[in-house]
Design a protein that fits this description.
Blueprint: H1 3-16, H2 20-32, H3 37-57, H4 63-88, E1 98-103, H5 111-122, E2 126-129, H6 136-145, E3 150-154, H7 158-161, H8 163-173, E4 181-185, H9 191-196, E5 201-203, H10 206-214
Parallel strand pairs: 1-2, 1-3, 3-4, 4-5
Helix pairs in contact: 1-2, 1-3, 2-4, 3-4, 5-10, 6-8
Length: about 220
C-alpha cells in the first residue's frame, strides 16, 4: 500500500470513527504530499460516508452519529472547496446551465448528490440543491421557479429509483418535459434503467456528470 492509499484509508476510517481532528489532519497531510482534492472527495470521504450510511441502516449508528458525520464532512469540504474549484476549472462550462438537483422521495442518501452539486457549482453552473426525500411537486415547482433547463435526480435504493419515472411522467403531463434535460444517477441506477424510464442521460460519477452537462446546449 503506497502513501496515498494509506492516507485515504486513514481518512475513511477516521471519518467512520467520527474523529474530526484525525480526518482534517490526514487530509492536510495528503494534500501536502500531492493528493488532489477531487480524489480525496470522490475516494475516502465518499467511501466513509457510504459506510456510515450502512451502519445507520443496520442500526449500529443513529441520527446523532449521522449529524456528527455530516458536520465533519462539511468541515472537510470547506477545507477542500477552494482546491476543488481550481481542479474543476479544467471542466469549466462554456454553457452555463440552470440546474435543479435532489435525491428522490423515500431516499435520504445525499453524499453523492451533494458532491456532484458542489462540483457542478465549481464548474460554473447555477445549481439549486433541493436536498433529500424530494417529492414530485417540489421537483416540478423548482424547475418552474428557477427556469431550470436540467433536472438531476439521484437514488441509492432500487425501491426509490422507481420514483424517477413518476417525476418524468409529471413533467410530461404538465408540458415541461421538452424544456428540461433529465439526468439520473446513484447506486440504484444504470444507463439501461435511465433509458427505460425516458431520462436524457446517466451520470456515473461527479466528473462524468460534469462532462455530460457541459456537452449539452442550453435550452
Amino acid at each position: 500500500m503506497n502513501s496515498s492509499s494509506k492516507a485515504y484509508d486513514r481518512i475513511r476510517k477516521c471519518l467512520v470513527d467520527l474523529d474530526e481532528e484525525c480526518v482534517l489532519e490526514t487530509i492536510k497531510e495528503a494534500l501536502e504530499r500531492g493528493s488532489s482534492a477531487t480524489d480525496i472527495v470522490l475516494g475516502p470521504l465518499s467511501a466513509g460516508m457510504m459506510e456510515i450510511g450502512h451502519l445507520y441502516e443496520e442500526g449500529e449508528y443513529f441520527i446523532a452519529e449521522l449529524i456528527e458525520a455530516a458536520e465533519i464532512f462539511k468541515k472537510a469540504m470547506n477545507m477542500l472547496n477552494p482546491l476543488l474549484e481550481k481542479e474543476v476549472s479544467g471542466y469549466k462550462a462554456k454553457n452555463r446551465h440552470r440546474i435543479v438537483i435532489g435525491t428522490v422521495k423515500g431516499d435520504i442518501h445525499d453524499i453523492g448528490k451533494t458532491i456532484i452539486a458542489i462540483m457542478l457549482q465549481a464548474a460554473g453552473h447555477e445549481v439549486h440543491d433541493l436536498g433529500v426525500d424530494v417529492d414530485v411537486e417540489k421537483f416540478i415547482k423548482a424547475v418552474i421557479e428557477y427556469d431550470a433547463d436540467i433536472l438531476c435526480m439521484s437514488a441509492l435504493l432500487t425501491s426509490t429509483a422507481k420514483y424517477m419515472k413518476t417525476v418524468i411522467k409529471e413533467l410530461e403531463r404538465r408540458g415541461l418535459r421538452k424544456k428540461v434535460y433529465v439526468l439520473v444517477g446513484g447506486a440504484a441506477v444504470t444507463p439501461e434503467y435511465a433509458r427505460k424510464i425516458g431520462a436524457d442521460g446517466y451520470g456515473k460519477d461527479a466528473i462524468e456528470t460534469i462532462k455530460l452537462i457541459n456537452s449539452l446546449p442550453v435550452k
